[in-house]
Amino acid sequence: MSTTVSNPFAEPEERLALRAAVAGLAGGFGHEYIRDKSRSGEKITELWSAMGKHGFLGVNIPEQYGGGGGGIADLAAVLEEAAAAGAPLLLMVVSPAICGSIISRFGTEDQRHRWLPGIADGSLTMAFAITEADAGSNAHNITTTATRDGDGWVLSGQKQFISGVDEAAAVLVVARAADAESGRLKPCLFVVPTDSAGFSASPIPMTMAMPEKQFTLFLDEVHLPHDALVGDEDAGLLQLFAGLNPERIMGAALSNGMARFALAKAVDYATTRSVWRDRPIGAHQGIAHPLAQVKIELEQSRLLQQKAAALYDAGDDLGAGEYANMAKYAAGEVACRATDVAVHTHGGNGLTEEYGLANMLLAARLGRIAPVSREMILNFVAMHSLGLPKSY
Fold first, then answer.
1. What is the CATH T-level fold of the domain 13-124, as seen in this structure?
2. Tens digits of per-residue pLDDT, 320-331?
């Protein structure tokens, strides 16, 4: 009988090497780079291009289309390490994770060859548009429509809180088309180039300082060719969730990375700052215990992220959906707690520009709100994991 014991909680050597490489590259830019770009309104083009040049943005894209041939677990590791180094990349959640995953799985060969190589090397980005002002968290209330026009399509409607449209070559838009038999509206996905006639975007002023901007999209009878449709017209919901599960996993990775950054800053400060009897403030339980609690909650959250990614990469979309939601919830919570504890550890210094934590209080809350609120995740877990009656 073999005495070899495998460790399912240890990442492969290749992913550990990937993490180290990303941490080194992103750390060379760091929080100060992101802060300065955010203040000036500039883009983080140098960082994005460097990540693409080294193959980090496309680790989940199939090799035949210019990617690394890995899975969402690898891409999540990239984003987590970048965020932990103080250089989070929000558009990684959108372009390679959502759009890259959907087109890789359901796109035609022409669509894959047209879009995936650029997504993989970072030479183009693709935004994702599902949210609407009046639909909120209810995707069934989406009013953007896709109407057949000969052998093509016409899209009309509005989208809100769409990230990075000003940097995108195209947007993957979720619209609703009429079923030929029942007449009922069904979700479909379309790639819409941002230079299409009838396509426009208006920036949304945001309090939080970040390089990636938010936009309202206007689709005013945008005419598209038939091959703008991604995948099967009758399998839009399945295809949509093939992108939303990676979105939640990557959202968890982003929040976990931010929590790691905040915790590291707090631990360093608690170790070096002395006030009473020349002892570091971290020697006091009032400081040490909250930091220890964050560490425990962070490792729990990372395990959920790891399991969700493993299930998705194994092709278990149903199981991945359950754990991706749990992972996103846990990561959003620990990011908020970590940033709050980090600011409190620093005292007044935590609110200064020098230490770079105050803006993170806002940024961390994004993980509780978007792309799905924690309340909707609790609804999902109550209904699907626990079998409780639907509440809405």
1. Butyryl-Coa Dehydrogenase, subunit A; domain 1 (1.10.540)
2. 999 999 999 999
